[in-house]
């Protein structure tokens, strides 16, 4: 099973490869429908992007949204429909805070679940962004897969003040600029944890190609640390 995301700004939908729509949103006056191969017309009240599925007391799907926050709902075991009300549990961001690409992950040996997200603006223009506004990978942790998640200093990821809650995993450094869009998994060959992400190079045209970054993560301190 896999999920795909279709986006045609300003709306987007998460679609299941199996059948119709995982999420159905109530019609909101004045909003446009997504043109897609989906059998039914659907209306959205927020951007529904960046699906992440975990198995924690049943299947849970998180998604969203850049400025409206990250939410999580229950999904039926046949993965064809939401089995809890949308938008669901608020996990991070919201209130205009730029947060997206969230994933929830539990290392085997950890008693914590970690909620990784990209904070800021992904790099799409030829000019650098104001310092600190570019993408970076932040994380919070919690005792379960449905939150609440907190940064190292105890601030909940749902707080929307500046600086953002959550602890830095990876930010711009050297020629690596605006890393984000991360995914985390356990490498079955080495048995180690891996984070993959995209970034652009400071010493190249900002709106040129993106690169794929791959690093191991070490969770032994209780927080993920990027290592070679
Ligand atoms: C988990 O802990 C076991 C026992 O301490 C260790 O052998 C194993 O390497 C650890 N796995 C990871 C991925 O850290
Ligand atoms: C930019 O820097 C990276 C290493 O930091 C290097 O591999 C790459 O070739 C550089 N690109 C250019 C155009 O110099």
UniProtKB/TrEMBL annotation:
Matching InterPro entries: GH43_arabinanases, Glyco_hydro_beta-prop_sf
Domain of life of the source: Eukaryota
Signal peptide bounds: 1-24
Gene3D superfamilies: Glycosyl hydrolase domain, family 43
Keywords of the record: Signal
Name of the molecule in the record: Uncharacterized protein
